[in-house]
Amino acid sequence: MNKKMFDVNYEGIPDELLERDQWVCWKYEDGSSDSKSAKSFFDAKTRGSGYDGIGFMLSVDDPFVAIELNDVINPEGVIEPWALNIIDLMDSYTEINPEGTGILIIIKGKKPAGAGCIGGPDGKLGVYDCERMIPVTGERLIDTPRTIERRQAQVDELCKQLSGSEPPIGPPASGFKRLVDSKGKLQGFLEE
Description:
By secondary structure, the chain is α+β, with helices and mostly antiparallel strands. Helices cover about 15% and strands about 25% of the residues.
């Protein structure tokens, strides 16, 4: 069972997601979600007390692409260099996953037809644009936009590179160090 590090920061979620009735609640222990009954953000937030978190259901009817970078933040808070390059390339709303070990980037665009959705080092990178629930925390990575940006050319390039096993997107970037307050709550990241 995964351990949730973050509660949802509702104020950090972009308005463009909040306005859509594509919200669900989810649980770790059985992997369940109430995805068959997508609802408004308010409804999901209200019903969320019996669940581990809320998520957004990607649909063919919305303009969003989710890029998941899994297990790319080490225990010291350093993000893998190849993942930083993708964050920089996409330059759109980016948040930390519920466990504090991965990154979710949301852009506007569409995954190229026929493109694979998983790749990168050890299969840690996934690109999705429909029929996928993405857990949302609202814990935005500092120095990334608060808004969801249109990045079709960038997602096209990323998907083109997914078939290889080499880290995608350019030369390594420097790592980031986690900033926490006196209670251990993540406040953001600083470049090392």
